[in-house]
From TrEMBL, chain A:
Pfam families: Response_reg. SMART domains: REC. Keywords: Cytokinin signaling pathway, Phosphoprotein, Transcription, Transcription regulation, Two-component regulatory system. Residues 11-147 form the Response regulatory domain. Residues 146-213 are annotated as: Disordered. The modification 4-aspartylphosphate is found at residue 80. Belongs to the ARR family. Type-A subfamily. Functions as a response regulator involved in His-to-Asp phosphorelay signal transduction system. Phosphorylation of the Asp residue in the receiver domain activates the ability of the protein to promote the transcription of target genes. Type-A response regulators seem to act as negative regulators of the cytokinin signaling. It comes from the Eukaryota. This is Response regulatory domain-containing protein. Coiled coil: none annotated. Residues 150-159 have a biased composition (Basic and acidic residues).
UniProtKB/TrEMBL annotation, chain B:
Coiled coil: none annotated. Keywords: Cytokinin signaling pathway, Cytoplasm, Nucleus, Phosphoprotein, Two-component regulatory system. This is Histidine-containing phosphotransfer protein. PROSITE patterns: HPT. GO terms for cellular component: cytosol; nucleus. GO terms for biological process: cytokinin-activated signaling pathway; phosphorelay signal transduction system. The lineage of its organism: Eukaryota, Viridiplantae, Streptophyta, Embryophyta, Tracheophyta. It holds the Pfam family Hpt. The modification Phosphohistidine is found at residue 80. CDD domains: HPT (cd00088). Residues 39-144 form the HPt domain.
Length: 213, 151
């Protein structure tokens, strides 16, 4: 697994309920040489990721994956904000609350320029907020976010080889997360609880990736 | 060859008029730029999706606004979608009409909404007609052995 990655190795999951916008974002991303998968709802995005939740929405559908682990490598999720049922914000929250998926960068798109909405998404951990219609210039901003994750994965791999007991989350990740003064204790506790899980998932996923490629 | 040159000029003039009369904006140019040899029909495909989607939304809006009790939430959601898709293909007059429409929707003004619906329909059929003419000109040009100039 070389560090020098070409663009086409990046796989972007695009989520939009509008077929026109799906077509457009797919074309934009492909023009920028990314691999693209498009889905029309947040729940389908989660399904594609292999995000498994024993509750509600998924219960009446056959579950694709029995494990809450990433089946196909997704390097970035770009989602529309305004969608029926699960909004882009809801999807973002689910991703960022998940120990297995929180490292995937999420970018939100919206046709409305509502500052409170933008800051809410950024606080929740979105990397970027694009105003629609999205243009090639916007899509070109995605690469650094994907590089960050790739590099982080590689660093992690090295760390885990040396010692699996080492801290999983590198410091720069923690500082990029928004401060949550109200329930910071809660959040901290949660993140330590899931750490072990994370390292196992990560290891498995990497090997999966290796065998696939 | 003369036919090709004439058609090319005609296409160029027509396209220019669509921008000048604000039927289309720069987003349509973006769409054209995304079209290449590997995707020669991209613009027509996206615009066809826009036609299908808009027709569905306009039909639903007409039905919803003619109910005894108007479900303004539904109306607003549909106008929002139409505003989004028209902006995605660069049909700016439709998009602008949708913005006005949403204001009346917020005020729950049925009469205003019905007027706006008519306005949106007018703009939609106008731009649909214009785009169909544009595509026909492009087809004629290609049939005559010319290639579509890229913006």
């Amino acid at each position: 697994m070389g560090m020098a990655t070409t663009k086409s190795e990046f796989h972007v999951l695009a989520v939009d309920d509008s077929i026109i916008d799906r077509k457009l974002i797919e074309r934009l991303l492909k023009t920028a040489s990314y691999q693209v998968t498009t889905v029309d709802s947040g729940s389908k995005a989660l399904e594609f990721l292999g995000f498994c939740q024993d509750v509600e929405s998924n219960s009446n559908e056959p579950s694709i994956s029995p494990n809450n682990q990433q089946e196909v490598e997704v390097n970035l999720i770009i989602t529309d904000y305004c969608m029926p049922e699960m909004t882009g914000y809801d999807l973002l929250k689910k991703i960022k609350e998940s120990s297995s998926f929180r490292d995937i960068p999420v970018v939100i798109m919206s046709s409305e320029n509502v500052p409170s909405r933008i800051s809410r998404c950024l606080e929740e951990g979105a990397e970027e907020f694009f105003l629609k219609p999205v243009r090639l210039a916007d899509v070109n901003k995605l690469k650094p976010h994907m590089m960050k994750t790739k590099n982080r994965d590689c660093q992690k791999a090295e760390q885990e080889e040396v010692s699996s007991q080492e801290k999983i989350v590198p410091p720069e990740v923690q500082s990029s997360e928004p401060p949550q003064p109200d329930d910071s204790n809660n959040t901290k506790r949660k993140s330590t609880e899931v750490e072990e899980e994370v390292s196992q998932d990560r290891t498995r996923r990497r090997y999966n990736g290796l065998t696939v490629i | 060859m003369a036919a090709v040159i004439q058609l090319q000029r005609q296409l160029l003039d027509y396209t220019t008029s669509l921008y000048n009369e604000a039927y289309l904006d720069g987003q349509f140019t973006q769409l054209q730029q995304l079209q290449d040899e590997s995707n020669p029909d991209f613009v027509v495909e996206v615009v066809s999706l826009f036609f299908e989607d808009s027709q569905r939304l306009l039909d639903d809006l007409t039905a919803t606004l003619n109910q005894q009790v108007v479900d303004f939430k539904r109306v607003d959601a549909h106008v929002h979608q139409l505003k989004g898709s028209s902006s995605s293909i660069g049909a700016q007059r439709v998009q602008r009409a949708c913005i006005v429409f949403r204001n009346y929707c917020e005020q729950q003004n049925t009469e205003g909404c019905l007027k706006c619906l008519q306005q949106v329909k007018n703009e939609y059929y106008l731009v649909k007609n214009k785009l169909e003419t544009l595509f026909k000109l492009e087809q004629q040009l290609v049939a005559a052995g010319g290639s579509i100039p890229m913006q």
